[in-house]
UniProtKB/TrEMBL annotation:
It comes from the Bacteria. Residues 1-26 are annotated as: Disordered. This is DUF1129 domain-containing protein. The chain crosses the membrane at residues 117-141, 153-172, 184-207, 219-236. The lineage of its organism: Bacteria, Bacillati, Bacillota, Bacilli, Lactobacillales. It comes from Companilactobacillus farciminis. SUPFAM superfamilies: MFS general substrate transporter. InterPro entries: DUF1129 (IPR009214), MFS_trans_sf (IPR036259). Keywords: Membrane, Transmembrane, Transmembrane helix.
Length: 248
């Protein structure tokens, strides 16, 4: 029985060795294809793929491509076409109808621009600054007398807006990820709770900051600050090409 087991292990090892050699050879062939000259690759095309390339070149020329531009565009496709040709996948199956492929080349689909975290953070923070500015202005407008412990100072407004901007930007980014890559709701809520706790600690700590460092504006001052912040945000979004909404 032990001899049978050794024989099976030997056969399995041989099969694995053969499979490994085949995979290595496939990789070598693929590397050769992608490093080959375009003219050499054209000679390897099957009749069906050669016809596809001929029609593709024709449609590109009809759509305004010059001869060298059409050749350059097609040359970029040849390695992938030949590689899939070996696997038995023709160009019309790989790319779809030749008219559609020509259209995709002439009018390529632009990938949506990804806004970096820092830009989204500034954008959202400016929005919160404007919102809090209006809120602070209303509070100042309706308050009969100023509370010495009232921490609606300009420093509080700036830092609190930055905190909310960072927290909401992080949350939005998590919600935009595929469901399989999102953190669980428990983790997400945990982060939000920790973020809110930091904000409350910050507000409590600001009671020890003198008004000379954290001066409070009057109602008009806060309203003006809110309008300026929103205007800066508008210009910033236009400059950075941001089209995402700050709130999901």
């Amino acid at each position: 029985m032990s001899e049978d087991l050794r024989e099976k292990n030997k056969q399995a090892a041989e099969k694995q060795k053969v499979a490994s050699a085949k995979n290595e050879r496939k990789e070598e062939i693929k590397t050769e294809i992608y490093n080959a000259n375009a003219d050499d690759l054209r000679k390897k095309l099957s009749n069906k793929n050669a016809e596809y390339i001929f029609k593709l070149n024709k449609y590109l020329m009809e759509d305004g491509f010059k001869e060298d531009e059409a050749k350059e565009a097609i040359d970029k496709l040849l390695p992938e076409i030949v590689d899939n040709q070996i696997k038995g996948i023709p160009a019309n199956q790989l790319y779809g109808p030749v008219t559609q492929r020509a259209k995709d080349i002439v009018h390529p689909t632009k990938k949506p621009k990804v806004t970096p975290f820092w830009a989204s953070w500034i954008d959202t923070s400016l929005l919160f600054f404007a919102l809090f500015g209006v809120l602070y202005g209303i509070v100042a407008l309706t308050s009969k007398k100023q509370d010495p412990n009232n921490q609606t100072g300009i420093i509080t407004l700036i830092v609190l807006s930055a905190m909310w901007g960072a927290l909401l930007t992080w949350f939005n980014n998590q919600m935009k990820r595929p469901k399989s890559q999102r953190p669980g709701w428990g983790i997400t809520i945990g982060y939000l709770v920790v973020g809110l706790a930091f904000m409350f600690v910050f507000l409590a700590a600001m009671t020890a900051v003198p008004t000379s460092i954290n001066p409070a504006l009057n109602a008009i001052g806060y309203f003006i600050a809110a309008v300026v912040a929103y205007g800066v945000r508008f210009v910033f979004r236009r400059t950075m090409g941001i089209h995402d909404r700050s709130f999901m």
